[in-house]
Amino acid sequence: MTTIDRTAYPRFKRALSERDLKDVYTLSEDERALVEVSATTEQTRLNLALLLKSCQRLGYLPDIDAIPKRIVFHIHRQLGILETVTPHYEWQRTLYRHHVLIRDYLDVQPYGQGGEIVAETAMQQAVQSMMYSADLINAAIEELVRQSYLLPAFSTLNRLANRIRSQTHQGYFQDVTRRLTDEDQVLLDQLLVVNEGDPYTSFTSLKRITGRLTRANIDLTIARLKSVASYQHLMPYLSVLPSAKVGMFAAQAHSLQVSNLLDINRPQCYTLLLCFLHHIQTALRDDLATMLIKRMNKVRNNAKKNLDDIKREQRDMREAFIDMFAHVVHMTRQTPDNTQLGKDVRQLVKDAGGADQLWQDYEAMMAYHQDNYLPLIWRNYSSYRRVLFDLVDILDIQSTTQEQQLVQALEFIQSHRYHTRKYLADDVDISFLSQRWQNLIIDYHKGKRRYNRRHLEAAIFMTVASELKTGDLYVVDSEEYADYRQQLLSWEACKPHLEAYCKALNLPATASKFLVLTESVV
C-alpha cells in the first residue's frame, strides 16, 4: 500500500505560518461577496468560506472537521464571526448545495463525472515508463488538475494505481513468457540452482560486483560477459517491454534474493531474470568500452608527456645546431675562397660528429616539431596491446554513419593481430585518418606502398576511442555507448506534439510558413 507521504496528493500543512494564512486562506472581495450572498447565517457563511478556501488550496473538498483550527480562526476574523461558532453542517442538503456553489465558482468538475476515465488514462500512460504506484498517482493528479477535475479521496487513486500497475505488469510478464520455449525456461531455472562445487547460484554470482574495472580485473570482466553470452538469444524476447521497464525490472531483480524469486509466479520470475541478464550484459559492455576509452586517453597523455621530456632533452641539441649555423655564416663572411670555405665547413661538420650523426639528430628533432606526439603513441600503446585487442574482440563496434572505413580498418588490424612483421599491405582505406597519421603510417618500398603495422594499430585504436565518445561509433547491446539513432522518436510519435511544440517556441507549424520565416531571417 502506497503511503500518502510518497505522493503529491495535497494536504493541509502541519505548521501554518502567518504568511501561509495571508497568502492562501484570505478571502478576496469576490469570494467574500459570494459567501455573503449564498449563506444567511454565521454558521453557513463560516462553512462555505472554509470549504471554498480549502478547495482552492487542495483541489478537493475536504471533510470540514479536518480543517486546521488556525485556518478556522483566520476565517473567523475575516468574517467577523465569534470563535464560539464552530464549523459543522446540520443538514446534508446544505453541504451538497455548498459543494455545487464552490464547483461552479471555481469552474471545476466532480471526479464522478469523467474524472475516473481521465485518471485511468493518465495512469495507463505513466505505467509504461514508471514503476511505482506513487508515480502513477502523481501522474493522475497532474492530469486531473490540468483538466479541472476535483481530486477524489487518496484511497481511490491508490486502489486504481495498484490495479493498473498489477494488470499492466502481469500482461508484460505473460507476453515475455509466451515467447520462451521449454528449453529457455530450463536455462533460466538453472540460474537459481546451486552449482556443484560452487556455494552460490549463478544468479548470485552474477550479482557479485567485481569493483572498479581495472587492468587487473579486466580479464574477469570479459569472462563474465562471455559467461552470459549463452543467454543472448533470449534478449529479443524483451522487445515487448518498454525500454524503461527493462531497467526497472532489472533493478527489482537485483534487489531480490533467490528465495524471493522462487516464491513469485513463473512468468514474473522469468521476466525479471531476463531483464537482469540484459542489464548485466549492457553494464559489462559499458564498462569494457569505457576501459578502452580510458586506456587510449592514458596512452595519448603519456605520449604528450614523453614529447615534453624529449623537448627538454633536445634543447642542448637545438642550441648546438644554432651555434654551428652561426659558425657557417661567420666562415662565409670571413672566407672569400669558396673552395676553402667548403673545406672549413666539412671540417666543422666532422668535428660535430659527422654528417650522418647530425642528420639523425635533425630527423629526431623534426619528428616531434609542432607538438607532434603521434610517433610516441606506440611506445605507450604496446603495453596495453593485448588488452585492447581483447576488448574489441568481445565488443561488437559499428558505425552510426554511412562511412564504414574505420570499422573496416578495425577489422583489418584484428585479422592481423598475431602478425609480427613490421609492415602490412595497404589493403584497407585509411583516408579518414589525419594527414599526420598517414605520413607516419604510409611507407614506400621499391615503389610499392605499405603500412607500418605498429603505427596503424595505434592510430585505429585512438580513432575508435574518440568516435565512441562522440557517438559516431556505437557498441551493439550497450546502453552508454548505444546507437543514438535508436533512441530518437519516430515522426509518427513526434507529429501529435508538433503544434504544441511550435506554439511554445513561437514557430510556425507548417513547412510553407516555416520556409517563409527562415527566408525572412536570412
Short description:
With 522 residues, the chain is mainly α. Helices cover 62% and strands 3% of the residues. It is elongated, with a radius of gyration of 38 Å.
What do you see in this structure?
By secondary structure, the protein is mainly alpha-helical. The protein folds into 6 domains: 4-106, no CATH class; 115-179, no CATH class; 182-292, no CATH class; 315-367, no CATH class; 378-486, no CATH class; 491-521, no CATH class. The chain contains 25 helices and 5 strands. It has helices at 18-24, 29-38, 42-58, 69-79, 92-106, 115-126, 133-146, 154-179, 182-189, 202-207, 218-227, 243-255, 258-263, 266-313, 315-334, 338-351, 355-367, 377-381, 385-394, 405-415, 435-441, 453-470, 491-494, 498-504, 511-521, and strands spanning 397-399, 423-425, 442-445, 448-452, 473-475.
Number of strands: 5
Radius of gyration over C-alpha positions, nearest whole angstrom: 38 Å
- Separate helix tally: 25
Q: Measure the end-to-end span.
A: 59 Å
What is the general shape? elongated
The level of helicity is 55-70%
> Could you tell me the mean pLDDT?
90
Q: Describe the biggest sheet?
A: 3 strands, antiparallel
- How many domains comprise the coordinates? 6
Query: Could you name the ranges where pLDDT drops below 50 across 5 or more consecutive residues?
Result: none
> So what's the oligomer here?
single chain
With strands numbered from the N-terminus, the spatial order across the biggest sheet is 2-4-3
What is the strand content? under 5%
**Broad structural category:** mainly alpha
Order of helices and strands: HHHHHHHHHHHHHHHHHHHEHEHEEHEHHH
